[in-house]
Amino acid sequence: MPIQRTARRRHYLMCRPSHFTVDYRINPWMDPAKPTDTALAVLQWERLYALFQELGHTVELVEPVPGLPDMVYAANGATVLNGRVLVANFRHAERAAEAPAYQAWFERNGYTEVHAARHVNEGEGDYLVAGDRILAGTGFRTHRAAHAEAEHVLGAPVVSLTLVDPRFYHLDTALAVLDDDEIMYFPGAFSAESRATLRELYPDALIATEADAEAFGLNAVSDGRHVLLSQTARDLADRLAERGFEPIGVDLSELFKGGGSVKCCTLELRHAAPAPGGAQ
Ligand SMILES: NC(=[NH2+])NCCC[C@H](N)C(=O)O
C-alpha cells in the first residue's frame, strides 16, 4: 500500500504569456526559426492556472511586460522564503529587465523585505526550497558566489549542486522537490560530486529516466500530494503514483519551445509564519 499523501495549500505567483514568443536563444531548446503560437501558449497556461485553483491553491498574477517574452517563466523572478524576497539578477541581457518588474510586484504587494541581488541568480530556476534547506544549482545560470548570498538573505542553509548538461541549464529542469524531504531528479544532469551529495542526502529519491527529464517531467510542481508535470513524462507519472502521489499531466507544448514547463511558470510565495493570534 502506498503512503497516504497530504497536500498543503500553496500560494503561487504566475505571469500570463501574453507576449510569449521565441526570438532569441539562451538555452538549447530555444529556436527562433521555429514558429510559436502565443494564443495557444495562453490557452495552455490558462489550464495550469485554473488547475492550481481547482486544487485549492491561491495564485497571484504579475502583469506581463511587452518585449519580455520569457517573463511567463515566473519561477525565475525571485525566491521567497519566510516572507523574505531575493529578487533575480539574470545572467543574460535579454531577461535583465524582468528583475525590476518582479521586484516592483513584491514591493506593491506588501513585502517589506525585498532584496535586489548582487550576484547573478535566476530565482527558483536554481533555488529549490526543500524543507529546511535550499538546494541551489550553478553551472549555467546562477553563479556559485550567489549561493552564500541566498543563504544569508533567505536564512536557510544552502546545498550547492553543479549542473553539467546544457539541456538542463536550471536546477528545476533536473530536480523537483516532492515533499519536505523527498525529491526526484536525473543524475546525468549533475557533476559526479553533486551526484554523491544527492545520493547521501536523499537515498530514497525517485530517479528519473533521461527521456522523462528531456520531456521536462522534472520541471514539476508538487503540493505534497498532487504533482503537476508534463503529460509526456509517462514513466515518471507511474513511479509517482506508486509512491502515493497523484500525478496530473499538463500540456505546455508551446512553453516547451522556450525551454520550460510547469515549474518554470510557477513561483511559490512562502510567507512568514503568522504572528501568534494574528490573522494570516
Ligand atoms: N525555471 C525555468 N527553468 N525557467 C525556464 C526559463 C526559460 C527561458 N527561456 C530561459 O532560458 O531563461
Automatic annotation (TrEMBL):
Keywords (alphabetical) are: Transferase
One matching Pfam family: DDAH_eukar
Biological process terms from the Gene Ontology for this record are: L-arginine deiminase pathway
- Protein's UniProt keywords contain Transferase: yes
- Alphabetized GO MF terms: arginine deiminase activity; transferase activity
Please report the name of this protein according to its UniProt entry.
Answer: Amidinotransferase
Lineage, please? Bacteria, Bacillati, Actinomycetota, Actinomycetes, Kitasatosporales
